[in-house]
From TrEMBL:
Coiled-coil blocks: 331-358
Sorted UniProt keywords: Coiled coil, Exonuclease, Hydrolase, Nuclease
Protein's name in the database: Single-stranded-DNA-specific exonuclease RecJ
InterPro entries per record: DDH_dom, DHH_sf, DHHA1_dom, RecJ, RecJ_OB, SSDNA_exonuclease_RecJ
Organism of this sequence: Parvibaculum sedimenti
This protein's encoding gene: recJ
GO biological process: DNA recombination; DNA repair
Family: Belongs to the RecJ family.
């Protein structure tokens, strides 16, 4: 239905201003997959739309580490790093881990501690305070660890850009191993080993990994070195696969592309998570009211924000402590505290978002631009540094532009966090801004970046980023059409289909969740929930009904059209979601776009 035309269902401009197009360019590919694998055509369309060839379907539907895990030695410095850590374990040396305060950092740190404990050793985890210490290794913390007897330190999810600090650490006699994934400059800081697939001289091809994914490869390499060294003649060898729940959590929450090895990490990790063997994750699932089989969505929107809450508005080490504890009472107490902090974070975030939106809208009005600038930049004193990344993500969604939010202190310096749109590499642009003198510090990856900037450099930074990213943003904006995998009826949008579609997951960045159109729907019931969400019941021509909701849509053209039940027939587009409650397994449709049928081209 509509697949053979230039615009899906004839929609050239929807209520959100987008054209609807088919994700799949050639229907024959979907037909070949359907016939070869015995799959419904709609599921075959989803696979074909993601570039899966018929002969690769079986492997794609069952991503395995056996087929996708590379030799860790393919990453530069991995052998040097793993041999040194194996040596430290066998000699009983003290080792510390310096991790970032986000979910990727917490899971990476917890991953190493759990492995060390499993092989009969222990490590100390140090997580810096976001506000007092900022991102990445800092000299006072490293000197504190040295004074406590830790001469060998592993940084995880940070360190690649810490030239000055790692230089001071080397002068102080510390051995530093960096395990990271952030983009690098040609010159690297001094370290015993720097393992990062995004080093410019690394040819491993694993640049999409989160830090926790690199850390897992690090464990595989250490495990091999311990085996070769005879350690397991007197010690039990750990079950590395049992740690994949941590890898999945960090991978999803760092919004890296769910392709290749990352898909295997998350798919296998979700199975481990379902067994609830990690006491901390079990406690977190309980306070998050996670029922049923966990999916990538639960990692990104239920568990991840709570782990993050400690680093954002509470104690930075709470997340790592929760993920490493073996005490059920301690886990329950920490999980409850993180849940409380997450609610506090939400309230702070709402206030900062309101102020940031007002600031940006005022600037857009004063500039009299026909469209938002290539990069949205908002800055103010008094904003909490712990929520600026989330607010940047909201601004990105609102204006469909890369967005950076800066929290300024009273000394003329600000901490900033940015989020980008598909096709625009914000991390590389921030690194270029650092090299050009606009930043005190900065770095990141394609979809997210962090920075430190002087207040008097904000205007220059904005102009630099606009000039550098304007062309990429224009190209991305021109291709912002809503890509649909096919059309469904209200009756066909059922739980059986949802369960089949889940086999093509996990979905996330780089492997988009399937989007479908529901043609010629009528709205049988509609109301507002939560003040901003539009909930409705869709009815098909055959009378079949489907629950649906449009989040944060009440004041938008989309929400207003849904609330106006007298508009007649309407095409809606969005995603099919599970709706599990007290043992009942159902579905609802999350509406992302719509068009009145009279506005669609026949």
């Amino acid at each position: 239905m509509g697949e053979g035309t230039a615009h899906f269902l004839g929609v050239e401009r929807s209520l959100t201003g987008r054209a609807w197009v088919s994700r799949l360019a050639d229907d024959r590919l979907a037909l070949a997959i359907s016939q070869r694998e015995g799959l419904p055509e709609i599921v075959a369309r989803v696979l074909a739309g993601r570039g899966v060839a018929p002969e690769d379907c079986a492997a794609y539907l069952n991503p395995s580490l056996k087929n996708l895990l590379p030799d860790p030695s393919s990453l530069l410095d991995m052998d040097r790093a793993s041999r040194r850590i194996a040596e430290a374990i066998m000699r009983g040396e003290k080792v510390a881990v310096f991790g970032d305060y986000d979910v990727d950092g917490a899971t990476s740190s917890a991953l190493l501690k759990r492995f060390f404990n499993a092989v009969g050793h222990d490590i100390r985890i140090y997580i810096p305070d976001r506000i007092r210490e900022g991102y990445g290794p800092n000299a006072p913390a490293l000197m504190e660890l040295r004074d406590d007897g830790y001469k060998l330190i592993v940084t995880v999810d940070c360190g690649t850009m810490a030239h000055k600090v790692l230089g001071l650490a080397a002068d102080a006699g510390l051995e530093i191993i960096v395990i990271d994934h952030h983009q690098a400059e040609p010159a690297l800081p001094p370290a015993l080993a720097l393992v990062n697939p995004n080093r410019l001289d690394d040819t491993s091809g694993q640049g999409t990994l989160a830090a926790v994914g690199v850390a897992f490869l690090f464990l595989v390499a250490i495990n091999r070195a311990l085996r070769d060294g005879g350690w397991y003649a007197t010690h039990d060898e750990p079950d590395l696969l049992a740690l994949l729940d941590l890898v999945a959590l960090g991978t999803v929450c760092d919004v890296v592309p769910l392709v290749g090895l990352n898909r295997a990490y998350v798919a296998q990790g979700l199975r481990v998570l379902a067994r609830r063997g990690n006491i901390g994750l079990k406690a977190l699932a309980d306070v998050s009211r996670l029922e049923g089989t966990p999916a990538a969505y639960h990692l990104g929107f239920l568990l991840g924000p709570r782990v993050n809450a400690g680093g954002r508005v509470g104690r930075a080490d709470l997340g790592a402590r929760l993920l490493t504890t073996s005490d059920a009472e301690e886990a329950a107490a920490i999980a409850a505290e993180l849940d409380r902090l997450n609610k506090e974070r939400q309230a702070i975030e709402a206030q900062v978002l309101e102020e940031a939106l007002a600031q940006v809208d005022m600037a857009l009005g004063a500039s009299r631009r026909n469209a938002p600038p290539p990069v949205i930049l908002a800055a103010s004193k008094g904003w909490h540094p712990g929520v600026i990344g989330i607010v940047a993500a909201r601004l990105k969604e609102r204006y469909e532009r890369p967005a950076i939010v800066v929290a300024l202190d009273g000394k003329g310096e600000g901490k900033g966090s940015g989020r980008s749109i598909q096709g625009v590499d914000l991390g590389r642009a921030v690194t270029a801004a650092l090299e050009s003198g606009f930043l005190v510090n900065g770095g990141g990856h394609a979809m997210a970046a962090g920075l430190t900037v002087r207040e008097d450099k904000l205007e220059g930074l904005s102009e630099f980023l606009e000039a550098r990213l304007a062309e990429d943003v224009m190209t991305a904006s021109e291709s912002k059409a809503l890509r649909l995998d096919g059309a469904l009826s209200a009756r066909g949008a059922n739980r059986a289909l949802y369960d089949l579609l889940e086999q093509a997951g996990p979905y996330g960045a780089g492997n988009p969740e399937p989007r479908f159109a529901l043609p010629a729907m009528r709205i049988a019931h509609v109301d507002l929930v939560g003040g901003a969400h539009v909930r409705c019941t869709l009815t098909g021509e055959d009378g079949a009904r489907l629950k649906a909701i449009a989040f944060r849509a009440a004041e938008t053209p989309l929400g207003k059209a849904l609330l106006d039940r007298g508009t007649g027939s309407i095409h809606v587009a969005g995603r099919l979601k599970a709706d599990d409650w007290r043992g009942r397994r159902d579905v609802q449709f999350n509406i992302e776009d719509a068009v009145l049928t009279r506005d669609a081209t026949p």
